[in-house]
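F.,

This is the one I mentioned.
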């Protein structure tokens, strides 16, 4: 049985960011430290015939996802697809367009007899870290802080939670964990390895643990 994790840089396994000579933002990638790998390892302990596939791609929105869903999801013929888009979406599109296209993704999966699961994403940075020295990354941080602190990012999340309720789609709400940490006084920006939007390895493992607890009911 196959489970596909379908999303952006967090799903792909992206960590520290840097810029090249042209000012383009690049990232260090390691799929062996992505939540899909930890999830695969957890399943392999008890279920040898389960394979978790990483179909994350850095910088993607749900619109990019729609363009590659056939190649990166349908072609694997999975039983379950974990869908996780939101961070890039809230920065680059309207709420209506986000909900519309996420709904299309869910419908395509269901049409192909693939069970969709919606995975919310972690907090973005809540302030501009003094560890950021590159002007391009500082400007990126400003945009992320604005989306996080204004509530825009959370509105995008809540809209898909409502959509999932209507469509009877299960949710793994990792954002809620980060929200609880932040409200309890934890500096969540320091849990982001790039001080922008990528969770550290420990919190990639947290994603895997929470997904495992949700998905196990479909396996037994």
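My design for it:
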């Amino acid at each position: 049985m196959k489970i596909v994790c379908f999303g952006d840089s967090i799903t792909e396994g992206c960590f520290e960011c840097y810029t090249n000579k042209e000012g383009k933002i690049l990232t260090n990638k390691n799929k062996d430290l992505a939540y899909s790998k930890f999830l695969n390892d957890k399943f392999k302990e008890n279920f040898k015939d389960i394979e978790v596939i990483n179909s994350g791609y850095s910088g993607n929105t749900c619109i990019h996802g729609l363009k590659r869903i056939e190649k990166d999801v349908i072609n694997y013929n999975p039983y379950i697809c974990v869908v996780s888009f939101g961070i890039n979406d809230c920065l680059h599109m309207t709420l209506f367009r986000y909900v519309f296209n996420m709904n299309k993704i869910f419908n395509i999966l269901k049409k192909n007899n693939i069970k969709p699961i919606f995975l919310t994403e972690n907090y973005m940075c809540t302030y501009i870290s003094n560890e950021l020295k590159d002007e391009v990354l500082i400007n990126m941080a400003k945009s992320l802080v604005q989306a996080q602190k204004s509530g825009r990012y959370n509105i995008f999340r809540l809209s898909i939670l409502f959509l999932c309720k209507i469509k009877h789609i299960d949710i793994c709400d990792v954002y809620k964990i980060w929200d609880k940490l932040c409200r309890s006084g934890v500096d969540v920006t320091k849990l982001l390895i790039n001080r922008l939007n990528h969770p550290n390895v420990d919190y990639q493992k947290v994603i895997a643990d929470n997904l495992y607890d949700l998905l196990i009911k479909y396996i037994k």
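Residues 188 and 198 are 11 Å apart (CA to CA).

Talk soon.
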